[in-house]
Amino acid sequence: MLNLAQNVVHKVASSVQHVEEEILGLFTMTDNKIMDLIYATHVHADETFDDDSLFIIVENILKRATQIVDKVVQGSQVHVENIEEQTPKPNFSVPLCTLKQIGCELSCKAPGEDVAHKTTLSILNKLSTYSWEAKSVLALAAFAMEYGDFWLLAQLQHTDHLAKSVGILKRVPILTKPADLHKRRQAILELNNLIKATLQVIEIFDQFDKLSAYDPKDIPGLSIAMDHIPVDVYWSILTIVACSTKLTILSSDEPDKPHDLSPYSQKIHYILNKLKIQLIVCRRQLEEAETYRKLRKMVQTPTEVMEVFKALTFTKDKPQPLIDGSTNKTVNIEVLRRKNIFLFISTLEITEEDISIVKPIYEGTRKDDRYKIVWIPVVEQWTIELQKKFETLRSKMPWFTIQSISPTVGIKFIKEQWHFKGKPTVVVMNPQGKVENPNALHLIRLWGMRAFPFDKAADENLSKELTWIGPVVNNIDPIIQTWIKEEKYIFFYGGHDNEWIQQFTKRATTLANDPVIKDSKIKIEIFCIGKSGKGGEDHGIIGRFWSGIESLFFTKVHKQVDPVTQEIQKLLSYKNESGWAVLSKGSTVVTAGHGLTILRVLEDFEKWKEVAREKGFEFTFKEYHNRVIQSVRHCCRLDIPSATGKTPEIMKCPECPRTMEMFISYKCCHIDGPAAGHH
C-alpha cells in the first residue's frame, strides 16, 4: 500500500512538473518541439479554399478598426491614412460556421501562456484540413469579426440607438468612457499595435505563397522561409488568442487583471522583421533570375550592345560610369553605344604579361572609334586589399574599366554562358550585342592584330593555317624568326628528363651534320625550349610555349578534326612527358612526337638515311616515325586546363581512332607566372 501511494504521488508530481515546464517554457520552446506539436494537428492542406479573398476582407476590417482606435485614443495627434478598399472575388463564400467555432475558442479565455497555448492547439485541430496560411487567415478573421464589431459599435453608439444597445451588451461603454479610456490608453495602444504587426506577418505569408508559383531554382531562399511558416503560423495564432483575451480584460470589470502582451509583441515583431528580410532576399533573387533570363535572351536576340552591358552589370539605378584608363576619368556608358566591344574578363589574379597580350589590340584599334575594350574584373566579394589590387591593375590598362558587376547576374552569366573559370578571356561582341567569339584571347595570344577583328570568320581562316608553330615560338628567341624565314628544318624539343634531352641533343646534332644531310643541301637547326645556356630551366619561356600550344588547341578543339588539329593534340599530350619534339620546316610542322618514338627515329638514322636520299628527308622522316609509333605503344595523356573556357565532353585520341578516357587531376608548380597556372 505504501509503495502504491508513493507511485501515485510520484506520478502526480511528474505531471505537475511537466505542466509547469510547458507553462514556463512557452517562449523558450524550440522550433522543433513546436513543429512536433502542431504537425500532430495537421491532416492535409485543402488548396481549394480561397484564403486570399478572406484576407482581403480581414485586412479591410482591421486596417479601419485599428485606425478608429488610434483616432479615438490619440485624437487629433494621429495621422489618418487613406485606406484603399480591396474587393474579394464576387463568388467568395465566407465560412461563417468555421469562423464562429474559432470565435468560441477565442472568447472569454483566462489570461496565461498555458491557456493561450492550449487554445492555439485547439484552433489548429479545428483547422486541420486547411493550408498553413489559411489557418492563420481564418484565426485572424474570427478575431476581426469581434474586434471590428467592437469598434464599429464604439463609433456609432452616440448616433445610433441600435448600436448603443448592442454596444452595451458587448461592454463597449466600459472601455470608451473618457476617464476609463485615458486610464487604459497605453494598454489599448499596445493591443492595437500588436494587431497591426500580426496582420503584417500574415500578409507576408501570402506574399511567400505567391512566390511559390515561380521556379524554386529562381528563389533558393524561399524554401528556407516556407519550411518555417508552420511555426510562424503557430506564433501568429497564439498572438491572436492573447489579443482576444486582452480585449476581454480591457472591457471587463477587472481591467487591471495582469495579462502582459510584451512577450507576444517581442516574438511577433522578431518574426515580422525576419520575414521582411527573407521577403526582400527572395524578391531580389527572383529579380536577379529574371534579369539573368533577360540577359540570356538579349545575347541570343539582336539588340543594342549597351543594353546587354547594362544587364550584365545589373543596376536598377543609373548605370555606373566607366573609367577611361587613358585619362583616368569616368565616362558615361553611352560611349559603348553601337560599338564593337572586346570584353577583357579576368579575376584580379592576372599578371602584367596577361595585360600585355591585349595591349597591341588597344594600340591597333585606339584610333578607330568603332572598337572599344572594356575590362571586367570578376570579384565575388570586395575587400580593402582587393580594391587596392584592382586600382593597381587598372592603372596599367589604358582601355575602359567597369567599376562593379553583380555576382548573382553578371558573374553567374559570365561563368555559365561564357564558361569563365578563372583564366583571362576576351569576349567579342558586335554592335547588336551578339557574341562573335566567346573567347578570342587564344587568337590574340597567337596571331595578334593579324586575327583582327577576332570573330568567327577570322578564327576559321587562321585555323586552316599550316604554319601554326610560328606564332608560338616567334617571341622566344630572335634566331628562330631568322631560321623560319630561311625555311630551315627546326627541331623544337623539351621535357622533364634531362638525360633524354642530352641524348636527343646529341642525336639531332649528329643527324644535322651527317654527310647525307649536308649533301642534300638540307639545313637542320635544333632549339631546346626553356633550357638556358647554363643548363637551368626558364619557366617563363616554358610557360609561354605551352600557353601558346593550349591556345592553338582551344581555337581548334570544337571544330572538325583535321591533320593540323591532330598534331596540336599530340604535342599537347606530351607536355608532361619525359621528352617530346616537333620537327618543322620554317613554321610548317612536319610531325610532332613523343620522346620515345622521336628519339628512336634519330637512333635508327642509319637504317633510313639512304631512303631519305631517294625519297627526300621530310617524307622519309615522317614515314619512319609513323612505323615506330606502331611498334612503340605508350599511353596518350592530354591535360586540358579546366580554367580555360569550355572544355570538350568527348576527345578522340590523336594517335589512334579511339575515344580517350576522362580523368580529373590537380596540379601546383609552386611558382607564380605562366608556368604555374597551366595544367
From TrEMBL:
Residues 460-534, 542-670 form the Sieve element occlusion C-terminal domain. Residues 30-302 form the Sieve element occlusion N-terminal domain. Pfam families: SEO_C, SEO_N. Signal peptide: none annotated. It comes from the Eukaryota. InterPro entries: SEO_C, SEO_N, SEOA. This is Protein SIEVE ELEMENT OCCLUSION B-like. It comes from Ziziphus jujuba. The lineage of its organism: Eukaryota, Viridiplantae, Streptophyta, Embryophyta, Tracheophyta. The gene is LOC132803340.
